[in-house]
Amino acid sequence: MTHKHTHTCAIAGMLNIFGDHWTWLVVREAFYGATRFKDFQRNTGISRNLLADRLSVLVDEGIFKKVDIGTQGTRFAYELTDKGQSLQPVLAAMTLWGNEHVFGAGNEPVVMVDQKTGQRVESLQPVNARGRKVLPENVVAMPGPGASKATIRRLEEAAALDGS
Predict the structure, then answer these.
(1) 27: Cβ–Cβ under 8 A, 6 or more apart, which residues?
(2) Closest to 20 in 3D by CA, of 39, 7, 3, 42
């Protein structure tokens, strides 16, 4: 990943970490329980040099921590940090979207289930600060406290087009 986005935008910032073909698969494998380099490589098919690069980025960004597990020599495991664990809803949303729009009903390669009830998770619903469900069509983007002038301008343009 050589090109870095410079926009003051959460999506652009996230793409600077996760914007390639492999990184999400590496993170997926961590959620499936992989911790060792060889397991990430075997389960994704990524080349050794790309995997080493992606793991380095994920460690540098605080998504994974590198743990020395060597009893003779140096051997490492990679574990999700709290920051990495917080990606679970993102992975769940990606899985649900892929099941619906790529594979279709009845062809889902992986389904998400509620561990307590065993029932399938069919959607993720946004909630507001009070924990109340918000319909996706009622969610709008507005400038946040860290918004650049360009971001503010762009969101004002979008609101004007939307009639808000």
Answers:
(1) 18, 58, 63, 80, 84, 87, 91
(2) 3
Among 134, 116, 117, residue whose Cα is nearest residue 125: 134
Q: If you ran DSSP here, which 8-state letter would residue 164 be given?
A: -
User: Is the model's pLDDT at 110 over the cut of 80?
Assistant: yes
HSE-up of residue 14 (Cα within 13 Å, Cβ side): 8
Query: Of the candidates 30, 1, 32, which has an alpha carbon nearest to the alpha carbon of residue 14?
Result: 1
Give CA separation, 52 vs 47, 61, 134, in Å. 9, 14, 40
Mean pLDDT for 104-128 is 92
Instruction: Please return the burial class of 71, using the count of CB atoms within 10 Å of its CB with bins 0-12, 13-18 and 19+.
Output: exposed
Hunting for tokens 């921590």 — which residue is that? Answer: 65
pTM: 0.85
The helix (run of H) or strand (run of E) holding residue 71 is none
Select the more confidently predicted residue: 98 or 73.
Answer: 98
Q: Which one-letter DSSP state was computed for residue 120?
A: B
Tokens of 13: 């910032």
Strand, helix or coil at 85? helix
pLDDT digits (tens, 9 = 90+) for 59-81: 999 999 999 988 877 789 999 99
